[in-house]
Amino acid sequence: MKRKFQLCSRCYLCEEQAETVNHLFLHCKWTDQLWRIFSSLRKITWVKPRNIVQLLNCWINIGTTTIKEERWRIVPACIWWTVWKERDQRCFEGKKNNLQNFKMNCIALYYFWCKQKVLVQTEEFFDVLDFVTKSTDGVSLVCNTFGGGLL
Ligand SMILES: [Zn+2]
Structure pTM? Predict the structure, then answer.
């Protein structure tokens, strides 16, 4: 009789938990640092959802009615691409960035994507970050197993 085993490797970032999609892209303490950058800049009270589908549902509820909100929409993809690149670098090349460089890679990528994909005109780096800080002053974002949205 064959037994089915699900092998789950250890997370390449924290090296503490099993690597699952939801851990790697949402709950890992390294990834959490990236979420904190954007949530704290935008002054969002963050109750993290269980999985990435719930996160995307919540994230969209923040609002994407203006061209500048497109910048907000790309945040999850920016975080996940940064995480994936770091994960692959550790897995396949044996190279690790420290936490500070990891965070800087995400911010630089965010700026690059804003400049390339979203912005009509070239803007300075701090103008891009300034948008994140001013858009939803004091908004609380709650994502949980019962759904999510703005409070
Ligand atoms: Zn981890």
Answer: 0.75
CA 65 / ligand 1 centre spacing (Å): 34
CA of 103 to the centre of ligand 1 (A): 15
Measured in angstroms, how far is the CA atom of residue 119 from the centroid of ligand 1?
A: 33
Q: How far is the CA of 13 from the centre of ligand 1 (A)?
A: 5
**Helix axes of 75-88 and 99-113: crossing angle, nearest 10 degrees:** 130
pLDDT per residue as tens, the chain (151 positions): 556 655 668 999 999 999 999 999 999 999 999 999 988 887 777 788 899 999 888 887 664 555 557 788 889 999 999 999 999 999 999 999 999 999 999 999 998 888 876 555 555 666 666 656 555 444 444 444 333 333 3
Cβ within 8 Å of residue 144, ≥6 positions away: 47, 49, 50, 54
